[in-house]
Amino acid sequence: MTAARILMTGSREWSNGPASVDALNAAVNLLGSSSRQATLVHGAAQGADQLLDAAAKHLGLATEAHPAEWRVHTASCPTWCQGRDTCKLAGHRRNAEMIAAGADLVLAFPTHSYALAPGENRERTSRGTWDCADKAKAAGLPTLVIWGPKLFPFGDAGLELLTRAAHGKSIQLGPAGEMGVVDAWLPF
């Protein structure tokens, strides 16, 4: 068994505890690790981050929190952001830092689809989740999206990971390259 670093990103509206536990079990299994050798990296935000942190601790995973520094502005902040009490870009900076630190697998827990539907309220989206998933995919990290009871690959590295797992378990992936979360973590 090998040590595993699992980065998660998720919506502040995510509240599915059973799917969170199943996804963590799946991630550990997909990486050939054990709970005692895995670390969950998260952004310490409300919603998915807190829920997954609790689930990880319950399963015996170590956790590593990276809270955004909302009151810190940097030279890269645009002028419109400089005079505000909170930096609108702090979450994006935090996501980029977590990805730069590296991970063996990224799990994304959005509550809204990738693209906005016509007329959809931009305030109630999973923008930060998708931004982090996009950055992870661009960095070549295997990225999986938890949507319903399935793991969907988000990029080639995620598809490669699920393809290897499916081959090893002699199961078929779905038409989008997806695998059932439970199929991914059951040991057979």
Topology:
Elements (H helix, E strand, L loop, with lengths): L3 E7 L6 H14 L7 E5 L5 H12 L2 E4 L13 H4 L7 H11 L4 E5 L17 H12 L4 E5 L2 E4 L2 H14 L9 E2 H5 L3
Parallel strand pairs: 1-2, 1-4, 2-3, 4-5
Antiparallel strand pairs: 5-6, 6-7
Features of the shown structure:
single chain, 188 residues, alpha/beta, Rossmann fold, seven-stranded mixed sheet, 7 strands, globular
Q: Taking strands numbered 1, 2, ... along the chain, how are they ordered across the largest sheet?
A: 3-2-1-4-5-6-7
What does the radius of gyration come to?
Answer: 17 Å
Q: In CATH, what is the class?
A: Alpha Beta
What's the number of helices? 7
Percentage beta strand? 15-25%
Structural class: alpha/beta
Would you identify the regions where 5 or more consecutive residues have pLDDT less than 50?
none
| CATH-assigned fold name | Rossmann fold
The pLDDT mean sits at: 89
Shape, please?
globular
Main beta sheet strand tally, sense and closure: 7 strands, mixed
CATH architectural category: 3-Layer(aba) Sandwich
Helical proportion? 25-40%
Extended strand count: 7
Total count of domains = 1
Please describe what this structure looks like.
The chain is α/β, with parallel strands linked by helices and 188 residues long. The protein is 38% helix and 17% strand. It is built from seven helices and seven strands. It has helices at residues 17-30, 48-59, 79-82, 90-100, 127-138, 156-169, 181-185, and strands at 4-10, 38-42, 62-65, 105-109, 143-147, 150-153, 179-180. Helix 1 (17-30) packs across helix 2 (48-59) and helix 4 (90-100) runs parallel beside helix 5 (127-138). The chain is globular. The two termini are 16 Å apart. 38% of the residues are buried.
